[in-house]
Amino acid sequence: MASMAASDSGNINLNVGGEAVKGPDPSETTIDIIDRDPANMNAHLKVSFEEIFAEPHPTIFSFDGVWTTSYTVFRNTKIWCYRISTLLCAVPAAFVWGIYFALLACCSIWCCRPCTRAFEMELQCFKGFYAAIIGTFVRPCYEAMGFLFYNFRIFLHNGGGPKDNSACS
User: Which chain regions cross the lipid bilayer (predicted)?
Assistant: First the structure.
Protein backbone atom coordinates (compact mmCIF):
# COMPACT_ATOMS: atom_id res chain seq x y z
CA MET A 1 0.00 0.00 0.00
CA ALA A 2 1.37 3.44 -0.86
CA SER A 3 0.54 6.63 0.97
CA MET A 4 1.56 10.16 0.06
CA ALA A 5 2.12 13.36 2.00
CA ALA A 6 3.23 16.76 0.69
CA SER A 7 5.99 18.67 2.38
CA ASP A 8 6.84 22.36 2.39
CA SER A 9 10.14 21.94 0.49
CA GLY A 10 8.56 20.98 -2.86
CA ASN A 11 9.13 17.26 -2.35
CA ILE A 12 6.58 14.50 -1.95
CA ASN A 13 7.07 12.04 0.89
CA LEU A 14 5.89 8.59 -0.16
CA ASN A 15 5.43 5.54 2.02
CA VAL A 16 5.74 2.46 -0.19
CA GLY A 17 5.64 -0.92 1.53
CA GLY A 18 6.54 0.62 4.87
CA GLU A 19 9.59 2.38 3.39
CA ALA A 20 9.85 6.18 3.21
CA VAL A 21 10.66 7.53 -0.26
CA LYS A 22 11.11 11.21 -1.23
CA GLY A 23 10.66 12.65 -4.68
CA PRO A 24 10.03 15.97 -6.42
CA ASP A 25 6.44 17.17 -6.63
CA PRO A 26 5.48 17.02 -10.33
CA SER A 27 2.71 19.58 -9.82
CA GLU A 28 5.28 22.25 -8.92
CA THR A 29 7.32 22.08 -12.13
CA THR A 30 7.75 25.38 -13.95
CA ILE A 31 8.54 26.25 -17.54
CA ASP A 32 10.81 28.94 -18.92
CA ILE A 33 8.64 31.66 -20.47
CA ILE A 34 11.59 33.44 -22.15
CA ASP A 35 13.66 30.58 -23.64
CA ARG A 36 11.00 28.28 -25.06
CA ASP A 37 13.45 26.10 -27.00
CA PRO A 38 16.26 25.36 -24.50
CA ALA A 39 17.31 22.18 -26.32
CA ASN A 40 17.46 24.10 -29.63
CA MET A 41 15.24 21.49 -31.30
CA ASN A 42 13.75 23.94 -33.79
CA ALA A 43 16.79 25.92 -34.88
CA HIS A 44 15.91 25.16 -38.51
CA LEU A 45 12.64 27.11 -38.09
CA LYS A 46 14.30 30.35 -37.00
CA VAL A 47 14.14 32.28 -40.27
CA SER A 48 14.95 35.95 -40.62
CA PHE A 49 14.01 38.39 -43.38
CA GLU A 50 17.64 38.61 -44.55
CA GLU A 51 17.81 34.83 -45.08
CA ILE A 52 14.93 34.99 -47.56
CA PHE A 53 15.18 38.35 -49.29
CA ALA A 54 18.39 39.95 -50.52
CA GLU A 55 19.12 42.59 -53.14
CA PRO A 56 22.46 41.68 -54.69
CA HIS A 57 23.98 44.96 -55.85
CA PRO A 58 23.71 48.59 -54.64
CA THR A 59 22.79 49.82 -58.13
CA ILE A 60 19.60 47.73 -58.23
CA PHE A 61 18.25 48.39 -54.74
CA SER A 62 14.56 49.05 -54.30
CA PHE A 63 13.37 52.20 -52.55
CA ASP A 64 14.28 52.30 -48.87
CA GLY A 65 10.63 52.64 -47.91
CA VAL A 66 9.71 49.52 -49.89
CA TRP A 67 12.52 47.55 -48.20
CA THR A 68 11.62 48.62 -44.65
CA THR A 69 7.89 48.17 -45.26
CA SER A 70 8.49 44.70 -46.70
CA TYR A 71 10.53 43.81 -43.62
CA THR A 72 7.79 45.04 -41.27
CA VAL A 73 5.03 43.24 -43.20
CA PHE A 74 7.04 39.99 -43.33
CA ARG A 75 7.89 40.04 -39.62
CA ASN A 76 4.38 40.95 -38.42
CA THR A 77 2.66 38.50 -40.78
CA LYS A 78 4.92 35.69 -39.60
CA ILE A 79 4.38 36.54 -35.93
CA TRP A 80 0.60 36.98 -36.09
CA CYS A 81 -0.07 33.95 -38.32
CA TYR A 82 1.92 31.84 -35.87
CA ARG A 83 0.11 33.32 -32.86
CA ILE A 84 -3.35 32.81 -34.37
CA SER A 85 -2.59 29.25 -35.50
CA THR A 86 -1.19 28.36 -32.05
CA LEU A 87 -4.21 29.97 -30.40
CA LEU A 88 -6.43 27.61 -32.38
CA CYS A 89 -4.25 24.48 -32.39
CA ALA A 90 -1.78 24.46 -29.47
CA VAL A 91 -4.08 23.43 -26.62
CA PRO A 92 -5.87 20.64 -28.54
CA ALA A 93 -2.53 19.42 -29.93
CA ALA A 94 -0.97 19.45 -26.45
CA PHE A 95 -3.96 17.46 -25.17
CA VAL A 96 -3.69 14.87 -27.95
CA TRP A 97 0.10 14.54 -27.62
CA GLY A 98 -0.19 14.29 -23.85
CA ILE A 99 -2.60 11.37 -24.24
CA TYR A 100 -0.36 9.77 -26.87
CA PHE A 101 2.82 9.93 -24.79
CA ALA A 102 0.99 8.77 -21.66
CA LEU A 103 -0.35 5.74 -23.54
CA LEU A 104 3.06 5.13 -25.10
CA ALA A 105 4.72 5.17 -21.67
CA CYS A 106 2.01 2.88 -20.27
CA CYS A 107 2.40 0.45 -23.16
CA SER A 108 6.18 0.47 -22.84
CA ILE A 109 6.12 -0.08 -19.08
CA TRP A 110 3.25 -2.56 -18.81
CA CYS A 111 3.31 -4.39 -22.18
CA CYS A 112 6.53 -4.13 -24.19
CA ARG A 113 9.11 -4.46 -21.42
CA PRO A 114 7.45 -7.47 -19.72
CA CYS A 115 7.01 -9.14 -23.11
CA THR A 116 10.68 -8.54 -23.95
CA ARG A 117 11.79 -9.87 -20.58
CA ALA A 118 9.62 -12.99 -20.98
CA PHE A 119 11.10 -13.56 -24.44
CA GLU A 120 14.64 -13.23 -23.02
CA MET A 121 13.79 -15.79 -20.34
CA GLU A 122 12.37 -18.20 -22.91
CA LEU A 123 15.48 -17.88 -25.06
CA GLN A 124 17.65 -19.10 -22.18
CA CYS A 125 16.43 -22.64 -22.93
CA PHE A 126 17.67 -22.37 -26.50
CA LYS A 127 20.96 -20.79 -25.46
CA GLY A 128 22.23 -24.04 -23.91
CA PHE A 129 20.93 -26.11 -26.84
CA TYR A 130 22.57 -23.75 -29.34
CA ALA A 131 25.90 -23.80 -27.45
CA ALA A 132 25.84 -27.62 -27.42
CA ILE A 133 25.17 -27.82 -31.18
CA ILE A 134 27.94 -25.32 -31.94
CA GLY A 135 30.39 -27.06 -29.60
CA THR A 136 29.58 -30.51 -30.99
CA PHE A 137 29.36 -29.95 -34.74
CA VAL A 138 30.63 -26.54 -35.83
CA ARG A 139 33.64 -25.94 -33.59
CA PRO A 140 35.43 -29.22 -34.54
CA CYS A 141 35.08 -28.35 -38.24
CA TYR A 142 36.62 -24.93 -37.74
CA GLU A 143 39.40 -26.37 -35.58
CA ALA A 144 40.17 -28.97 -38.26
CA MET A 145 40.32 -26.23 -40.92
CA GLY A 146 42.61 -24.26 -38.64
CA PHE A 147 44.97 -27.22 -38.23
CA LEU A 148 45.05 -27.69 -42.01
CA PHE A 149 45.99 -24.10 -42.77
CA TYR A 150 47.99 -23.01 -39.71
CA ASN A 151 51.37 -23.96 -41.21
CA PHE A 152 50.96 -22.30 -44.61
CA ARG A 153 53.56 -19.63 -45.23
CA ILE A 154 53.65 -17.02 -47.95
CA PHE A 155 57.02 -15.68 -48.99
CA LEU A 156 57.40 -12.60 -51.19
CA HIS A 157 60.61 -12.22 -53.18
CA ASN A 158 61.79 -9.09 -54.93
CA GLY A 159 63.65 -9.88 -58.09
CA GLY A 160 64.61 -13.28 -59.34
CA GLY A 161 64.35 -12.30 -63.01
CA PRO A 162 66.68 -10.40 -65.37
CA LYS A 163 67.20 -6.77 -64.33
CA ASP A 164 68.34 -5.53 -67.72
CA ASN A 165 65.41 -4.97 -70.07
CA SER A 166 67.63 -3.93 -73.00
CA ALA A 167 68.32 -7.58 -73.85
CA CYS A 168 64.62 -8.07 -74.63
CA SER A 169 64.56 -5.60 -77.56
Answer: 84-105
Q: What is the mean pLDDT of the chain?
A: 85
Q: Do residue 85 and residue 17 come from a single domain? A: no
Listed in sequence order, the residues at least 6 apart from 43 whose beta carbon sits closer than 8 Å to its beta carbon are 37
Do 60 and 118 sit in the same domain of this protein? yes
Q: How far apart are CA 142 and CA 128, in angstroms?
A: 20
**Pair 59, 127 in one domain:** yes
Q: What pLDDT was estimated at residue 109?
A: 96
Domain annotation covers residue 47? no
Q: Does residue 9 lie within any of the structural domains?
A: yes
Amino acid at 40: N
DSSP string spanning the chain? Answer: -EEEEE-TTSEEEEEETTEEEEEE-GGG----SS-S-TT-TTGGG---HHHH-----GGG---HHHHHHHHHHHHHHHHHHHHHHHHHHHHHHHHHHHHHHHHHHHHIIIIIHHHHHHHHHHHHHHHHHHHHHIIIIIHHHHHHHHHHHTT------S--S-S--GGG-
Residue 54, CB-side half-sphere exposure with 13 Å CA sphere: 6
